[in-house]
C-alpha cells in the first residue's frame, strides 16, 4: 500500500470520494430522493410514472412503465435523434393518459441529466414535426372529389387547422445556451426525415395525441404552490413532466439522523454495477425498511444475505442465477482491510412496473413473422412456440433443453467480446431458416430479452424476410444491397412489438458486419 504521505491532492480526494460512496450511503440517498418522487407523483395522480432506464428505476416502489432516453444523445456537439431508441410507447401512453412523468437523476452536480435537458426535448420536437407533417398530408389528400359531403369537408378543415396550430418549436430549459439551441435547431429537419423514413407507426401516435407534446422540468429546487397546481386538462399541450431526483447543491452532503450519520450522494442510482453488489431495484424496495434501518456497519452483510437468498430462490425455480466473486474495492485495499470473498448475483434487473400496462412475464411476437423474443426464463413455459433459440452464455437445462427443435448459443455482450455475436450469427440464422421455412414458430431468447436476442432477431429479419415482413428464404437479402437505413427500419419494426428492446451499439454493429460479409445461400 502506498504511503499516504506521498499522496497528492488528486489521490487524496479520490480516496475520500471512494470512502463516501458506500453502499449504505447510496441506498439511503435513493430512499430520501424517492420521497420527493412520491410527492410529485401525488400532484398529478392521473399521469403514469415512467422510469428512465436504468438509473430512474431505483427511485420509486412502483412504475407504470419504463423508457430509455440516453444522456449521450444530448451531450454538447453530440446531439442525436436515435431511431433505435424511439420510445414510441411513451408518446402513445401520453396520448392515452393526457401526459406522463419520467424519473431520472444525475451524479454530476447538475439539476437535470442531459437526457432531460436535451435528449427528451429533441424527441418531443421531432415527434411533433412528424405528426404535423402526417396531419398536413392527410388533410391535403383527404378530398373524395366534388361529391364529398359537408361533413368530410368540415373534418378536413379541422385537420388543417390543427396542423397549423400544432406547436413544432424546440422547447429547451433556460440553462441551455442560445448557441446550442441554434445548432440543435439546424438538425431538426434532418432528424424528422429520419423518423419518417424509418417505418415508425406515426399514424397511431397522430391518432392518439390530441395535443402536441411538450416537456416540463421539475427538480428538488422547483417551487410549486400546492394551492395552484394546474390540472393537466387545462394545458394546451400534452405534458411530459421530467422529474430529476438529484439534489444539486453538492455531490456529497453530510446528514445525520437520531441513529446514523451518512452522506447524501446525488444520482446514487447511476452505474449500479459499481456499487449495488447484486442488489436490484425490486429487491431493494422489497427489503427497503430492513436495509435503511440496518445502518452503515451491517448494510453490506444485509445486502449479501438478501441477494443470496434471492439467488437460491431463482435457482430452485430453474432460472439462470450464477455466482461470481466480487473483488475488494480500492478503498478497502487502501485502508488495509480485505473483506471476505462474497458470492453475488449478476442477474438482470427485474423491472418493478405496473403489470396492467406491461407484462414482463410474456414474450413479444413480432407481427406475423412467426418470430418471438423474450427472456430465457420464459422459454420453458412459452405457449405457441415450436422451437427455441437461446443466446445465453449459461442456459439452465430446465429452462431450455437441447434438442432438434432447440439451439443454445453461448453469446456474450459486446462489452466483453466484440465478436461473440458475429461468430454465432451464421448458426442462428441457419437454425431459424430451417424452422421458419417449415412454418414453425420460433422464440429467440436471452437473459434480459432486451439486447442480444433483439439483435439476433434483427439479423434473422434482414436475412430471411423481404421489406414487407414476409418470409422469403433469403431471396430479398441476396438481391438487395443492405444499408444502415434498412437496418434501422427493421429495428424500428421490432421495437414496435418489443417495447423494452435496448440493443447495444456494439451488438448492432456486429449484425451489420454480418450482413455485409456475404449472402445467405438459398437451399431447397
Automatic annotation (TrEMBL):
<dbReference type="GO" id="GO:0019988">
    <property type="term" value="P:charged-tRNA amino acid modification"/>
</dbReference>
<dbReference type="Pfam" id="PF17184">
    <property type="entry name" value="Rit1_C"/>
</dbReference>
<dbReference type="GO" id="GO:0005737">
    <property type="term" value="C:cytoplasm"/>
</dbReference>
<dbReference type="GO" id="GO:0043399">
    <property type="term" value="F:tRNA adenosine(64)-2'-O-ribosylphosphate transferase activity"/>
</dbReference>
<dbReference type="InterPro" id="IPR007306">
    <property type="entry name" value="Rit1"/>
</dbReference>
<dbReference type="InterPro" id="IPR029021">
    <property type="entry name" value="Prot-tyrosine_phosphatase-like"/>
</dbReference>
<protein>
    <recommendedName>
        <fullName>Initiator tRNA phosphoribosyl transferase family protein</fullName>
    </recommendedName>
</protein>
<feature type="domain" description="Rit1 N-terminal">
    <location>
        <begin position="16"/>
        <end position="308"/>
    </location>
</feature>
<feature type="domain" description="Rit1 DUSP-like">
    <location>
        <begin position="407"/>
        <end position="515"/>
    </location>
</feature>
<dbReference type="InterPro" id="IPR033449">
    <property type="entry name" value="Rit1_N"/>
</dbReference>
<dbReference type="Pfam" id="PF04179">
    <property type="entry name" value="Init_tRNA_PT"/>
</dbReference>
<dbReference type="InterPro" id="IPR033421">
    <property type="entry name" value="Rit1_DUSP-like"/>
</dbReference>
